[in-house]
Design a protein that fits this description.
461 residues; mainly alpha; 24 helices; 63% helix
Length: 461
Amino acid sequence: MRQRLTGLFAVILSGAAASAAPRPSAADSGRLRDLLVLIESAEQQGAMDAAAELERMGPSIGPALVETLKTRPGCQVQWVTSGVLARLHLEPALVDTTLMQIARGTCRASSVRDVDLQQHAAFTVIDQARGIALMMELLRGDDLPGRRRAALAFDGLTERLAPAHPRAIAATPEILAATEAALSLLRDVVMSKAPQQIRCLSYEAIDQARRLPYEAVRARATTLLDKVRVDCDSRAGFVESAGWTDKPRREGLEEIIARLDSQSPPLASRTSSVLLAAGDEVVPLLQKRLRHTDKCRGLALVAGILASRNVADANVEAAFVRVLAGKCEGREPFDLKLAQGVASAFVSRADGVAKVTAILGDRDLSVRRRGAEAFALLFERLGSGEHAEPGAAVDPALVVAARAALAPLVTLATTERDRQARCQAVAALLRAQQSVHDALRADAAAATLGRTLRCVGPPAP
């Protein structure tokens, strides 16, 4: 099975040379900080451009890249940063360890792209004996995405061991010994009750090994598949637990998606991860669910899965707005946590800030609380504290929208009787007064002039 790498993945794996722009003698700290933000961009071209510019800055940025790997666990940041270090020929041991960790799945995955990066890391490390050992560990494990990732990597291994392959793996004695040792495990998976996709990928890996020009590997693969018959014509399924089967019927998939309405955080996280890794056939079922559930939990989770799969659908945005405004059923702590996550995500873009501004005067206390907390987070990012974002990385339209929220926040900070909501509004305003953006700082000072901003006791009637 041939894998084609595109976009960000291709640039980082290929090690393509950066353009011949002059390399500065020392990295400009402000620009470096901006670029280390941009490599996490959801827009692949922006992330690729930032990676290329980081490379042009040269080895002097090595300490900053190492610090980024230590402090930012997102899969894309880890992948891009380790790629830049590799092309600068810095910290080879750290780069290798990082790729192994991404392949293991320990980086923070929040989108389909992140799941893809974990898979590409697995394809990358499979050309080492220790990478083969890691994939064997994952294949034996209980984590379904990890098992699928390992099966795909083994399929790629026995394909790339063919000398004529364009990305052929060097058939060193160590690699051949590790491959031969993995064949027995692959055969066990083929004969197990694992999901069909994993079983069929394992079968394909052994079958490809039977045609390799290495006697020991070829003989072992031939022996292991003697009289083994596997039906791999049907499309494989993705989920093994919580009611999913190897060949799930449409009705079964719909039932599993419906369970997101009431699942606990650990189970919801597992189900969401599986749906992220599932095939395109699950997308219309998720879209249908958005139209049929009134549960805040289900709306937030299903919309989040679709958003992470980069599905452009007005119903996704509508679902998030319902959760934000509390126009759905569910007030348990997990529901409220999901709704707060939606509010925090909304204040990262200008049109979202306007939506959160609209809920500051809502009749529902929990809705007002989440709006005030989201703005406290926003103004911290627009300020000068440790969580602040570089000014160059902030959309000017977002700052304009934030300035429009100041008046409602002053009202909330001076009239709200609930201490939690009031204190979040006060925190937001105080942070706005310290913003690095001149217009926002001036507006915040003017809006709060002569106002008493306090968190102790109820506000004056």
